[in-house]
Amino acid sequence: MSNSKNKWLIPLAFTNIYVIWGITFLAISFGLKGFPPFILSGLRFLVAGILMIGYLLSRGEKANSLINWKKNAVTGILILAGGTGLVAWGEQYVTASEAAISIATGPFWFIAIDKKNWKYYFTDKFIPIGLAIGFAGLILFLKGSVHSSAAHAVGNGHLRITAFIVLGLSSVAWVLGSLYSKKNPASQSTFMNIAQQLIVAGLVCFFIAFIRKEWTGFSISAVPLSAWFGVLFLIFFGSIIAYLSYIWLLSVKPAALVSTHTYINPIVTVIAGWIVAHQSINGGQLYGLSIILLGVLLTNVTKYFRLSKRSKVKIRRLRRFFNRAGRRYQPI
């Protein structure tokens, strides 16, 4: 893919994972009004995967490599079934905003586990500083969120603590799957890889739902319209558009920088909750959000300076060119 296309696709892909996945936490909470967590996750993944692979097969693309299926199975189980399926389970007992905040430790797990890029992460002083500031903002944001939602807690104390632990584990599973995907890419198109990951994750989630007896007593006719809207959003936006953007970004950008979506997602979740579900935003949350944004800005500050320097170099070259041209063609 050419650099000119990357310049347009990279900011678009980051926007997708920043905004869509922020709304996804709220969509999961709507889906849970009619579906148990792993049935919800299995449905969104399997339908999205079947739609994608059906389209790709109709265009003549092959999906008969067992090695590629194996690689995509590992990625799909870790990122989707583990990373996202556990989020759906956790949102039974915590709010969408709390869930988004709880998995925002992703960038730290990326740096801790991704030893191959330690030299890059720690030679650029702005990245660890930005991540540290972002983490401090998350603590303040969580504090404000807990105070605002204490009167509306959706689970008892023990279940809420368990949910926060599970959400932390989901973040680790997500990071492990992301690094595995980056280091063990399958030899197919990105679309086919994602389709296979979604299908495997969907089947695994349905199996977990069977083990947990989620199918017992579940009636699809009793699912409210709001839950169906949540599922549709999760299928087309969360599982296809945003996930495609994420997997592609991992192939062109350092994993820790891609993982900064976990800092922006809580912001989008709170704003979406305020607009759609009429959830309030207090001063503590806003203060925490501003610090989070500062941290994300610092993790990318070196890149901004590089772009600025390149722009200045291009401007100087253009000036020299026109100056030489002007001297060459001065009237006699």
Explain what you see.
The protein is mainly α. It has helices at 3-31, 37-58, 66-90, 96-102, 106-113, 118-123, 126-149, 157-183, 190-211, 225-252, 255-258, 261-276, 283-299, 301-328. Helix 9 (190-211) crosses helix 10. The longest helix is centred in the N-terminal third of the chain and has 29 residues, at 3-31.
What is the arithmetic mean of pLDDT? 83
- Quick one: how many beta strands? 0
How do the SSEs run, as a string of H and E? HHHHHHHHHHHHHH
| SS-derived structural category | mainly alpha
Overall morphology: globular
Gyration radius, in Å: 22 Å
Characterize the main sheet.
none
Which percent band covers the strand fraction?
A: under 5%
Question: How is this fold's topology laid out?
Answer:
Elements: H1 3-31, H2 37-58, H3 66-90, H4 96-102, H5 106-113, H6 118-123, H7 126-149, H8 157-183, H9 190-211, H10 225-252, H11 255-258, H12 261-276, H13 283-299, H14 301-328
Helix pairs in contact: 1-4, 1-10, 1-12, 2-3, 2-9, 2-10, 3-8, 3-9, 4-7, 4-12, 5-8, 7-13, 9-10, 12-13
